[in-house]
Here is the input.
Amino acid sequence: SHIPVITIDGPTASGKGTVAHKVADHLGFHLLDSGALYRLTALQAIRRDTSLTDEHALAKLAEHLNISFTGEAVFLSHENVTDAIRQEEVGNTASKIAAFPSVRQALYGLQLGFRKTPGLVADGRDMGTVIFPGAQLKVFLTASVEARAERRYKQLIAKGFSANMEDLLMDLKARDDRDTNRAIAPLVPAEGAHVLDTSRMAVDEAVAQVLQWYAAAA
Ligand code: C5P
Here is the structure.
């Protein structure tokens, strides 16, 4: 397709969500937060008490998600679940069900549909490797696990959730491990991806770097 796509992949709490958002705003592009789709599926599974080993049932949930996005808000069957899907339990469940090929397959077409004019910024784990391999610009954002745990801690506290640094570090490592070592769509930099380590970088510096790469690629 001729509609430009910028993919931003990376581990949990690497800052890719914030960076993707700002880059999309700056360019007037659409935004795909692909992690939200896995989180929505996870939330639905938790609520319906679906077994987290029942791949078929989980794929059905993913396939029939009734979701909509309005600005920064996410709706599941018309309920605003923007905050609910950010909980650690939902993120952890998302990373478990994301290992199932049929769950990923069920969300594939939905993700392609986000590519609309004038362009798309897509963030996740496999945006550049699997979903949009022909993207104009591919970025892989990383940061040390400590820097990421600290950011996640601040985010959770700011949202009024309780958080514990040691638990967060453990959860992040477990999730990194699952996302990196799974057989399907593992978290790896796409071929040709620009790697950006944001451990000691302000958000706006990262945004400026991505925009500069995009200007050079376009
Ligand atoms: O990015 P976020 O933390 O919201 O994603 C939640 C989980 O969903 C990740 O830990 C990962 O396992 C899964 N995910 C994925 N592929 C994507 C986006 C997210 O497997 N493109």
User: Anything to note?
Assistant: The mean pLDDT is 94. The beta strands are 5-9, 30-33, 67-70, 73-76, 79-80, 120-124, 137-142, 194-197.
